[in-house]
Design goal:
447 residues, mainly beta, Thrombin, subunit H, 6-stranded antiparallel β-barrel, 31 strands, globular
């Protein structure tokens, strides 16, 4: 889940004009009472409905679980991590609490502009910020509002802060169905290296180090899916944003605190971007869709559509030769570019059984049983986590956006279909059954 909750000054835009960073409109919580549960996030608690009004989820569509978090800093701008967003091809949802259950308080906006920090880099992520502009302004109220941004001083080491998100409850585990919160304490960058196992090359001025410990000694931390979410601290009675969830080695490791992007250091850039982007938002980019028979309705983050598991994509019905981001027949042969009119999905290469056009199988009479295509048992069993795509024809999941795969924090790759036979591991692929496998933007970074 996310790391510490920060209190900051409001940065707002009213009809495109910049107003005071701190005002009565920012940094105020909605729901005021905890529900008393102790469900882990990584060792956090359920938040109360509408409590963290600035919390947003980044989603591929208008419904479903978020792939990253973020926070509203004005009605039409949000801040998230740069490793979460590069193109305006997603939606922002505010007022959400349980993403799988509609409450009627959610507000959904399409993103029309993404601006990454110019100094952002990977390995590990540095200056991990992205400003996200919404198609239209959110309506602020009981469940939706802005967090304050820092004005003068940065958050001091030892300060108790709050982190929130819908990330996984453990490294490589499942996402939380309810927004989670946890208290963490700010650690100085010097102590993050001297008293823990990060080295001086890992940590720089664009980062904040923090970690929480529960009453029973469990480490509180963010994890996969929390990226971009808030670390806020209470300052003069309002909640101020000091960190955006960025990266870390594993989740809730005692010797590796979580790392957040340090918002105070980016305030000059944030001010400049908002000042330079007043007025009407840019025109929405065209929506690219996959055909109805594709595995999913819109292209993945590599720009590809995909055949259902157990199928391959072909333009001639016999060879996996469809164009994709990985080249002709790339990514195991089951992916294709959305504009490919000659592409179609077939089951089981080498033994053509069924061609799928517009979702309807066209069968060869000697290759079907009872009028149905013959598909592998794995077709209905293997699934890949949300931060990956697949399985492909080899049975592997593939990390999205060229993220790297690590297994149980090992830097040498993940178990995949060739591991048992050749003893090798993959940097980008992993078996759906691998519980310790995760995808990182670079070694050490979260999703």
């Amino acid at each position: 889940m996310a790391k510490a909750v920060g209190v900051a000054a409001l940065l707002g835009l009213v009809q495109g004009a910049r107003i005071s960073k701190r005002s009565s409109a920012c940094g105020a919580k909605g729901g005021s009472s905890r529900n008393g549960s102790s469900i882990a996030i990584v060792n956090g608690d359920d938040a109360s409905p509408c409590e963290y009004k600035w919390q947003i989820g980044l989603k591929q569509g208008e419904i479903g679980m978020p792939f990253c978090g973020g926070m509203l800093i004005s009605p039409d701008w949000a801040l998230t991590a740069a490793h979460c967003a590069s193109e305006p091809d997603f939606y922002v949802v505010a007022g959400d609490f349980k993403p799988r259950e509609a409450s009627g308080k959610e507000q959904v906006r399409r993103v029309v502009q993404v601006i990454r920090h110019p100094d952002y880099q990977e390995g590990p992520p540095r200056w991990d910020f992205a400003l996200v502009r919404l198609e239209s302004a959110m309506e602020f109220g009981d469940c939706v509002g802005a967090v304050c941004l820092p004005e003068d001083s940065d958050v001091a080491p030892g300060t108790s802060c709050v982190i929130t998100g819908w990330g996984t409850l453990s490294s490589g585990g499942s996402q939380a169905g309810t927004l989670q919160e946890a208290e963490v304490d700010i650690i100085s960058n010097r102590d993050c290296v001297a008293k823990f196992q990060y080295n001086s090359n890992d940590i720089d001025e664009s980062m904040i180090c923090a970690q929480g410990v529960s009453a029973d000694g469990k480490i509180r931390d963010a994890c996969q899916g929390d990226s971009g979410g808030p670390l806020v601290c209470q300052n003069s009675g309002v909640w101020t944003l000091y960190g955006a969830t960025s990266w870390g080695y594993g989740c809730a490791g005692k010797t590796y605190p979580g790392i957040w992007a340090r918002v105070h250091e980016a305030m000059g850039w944030i001010d400049g971007v908002l000042e330079a982007n007043q007025g009407p938002p840019p025109t929405l980019p065209p929506v690219v869709r996959c055909p109805s028979w594709s595995r999913y309705p819109k292209p993945d983050r590599d720009g590809d559509c995909g055949c259902s598991y157990g199928q391959f994509c072909s333009t001639d019905g016999s060879t996996a030769d469809c164009p994709s981001s990985g080249g002709l027949g790339g990514w195991g042969g089951s992916y294709f570019s959305p504009g490919c009119e000659a592409c179609a999905c077939y089951s089981n290469p080498g033994a053509l059984q069924a061609k799928f056009i517009a979702g309807v199988p066209v069968l060869n009479s000697d290759q079907a049983e009872g009028g149905k295509p013959i598909l592998s048992e794995l077709d209905t069993k293997a699934t890949c986590p949300a931060y990956s795509i697949g399985p492909d024809l080899s049975g592997d999941c593939k990390c999205r956006n060229w993220k790297r795969c690590t297994e149980n924090d090992d830097k040498d790759g993940c178990t995949y279909h060739s591991t048992a036979r050749f003893g090798i591991r993959s940097r980008y692929r992993f078996l759906p059954s691998c519980r310790g496998c995760m995808c990182r933007k670079s070694i050490g970074s979260w999703l």
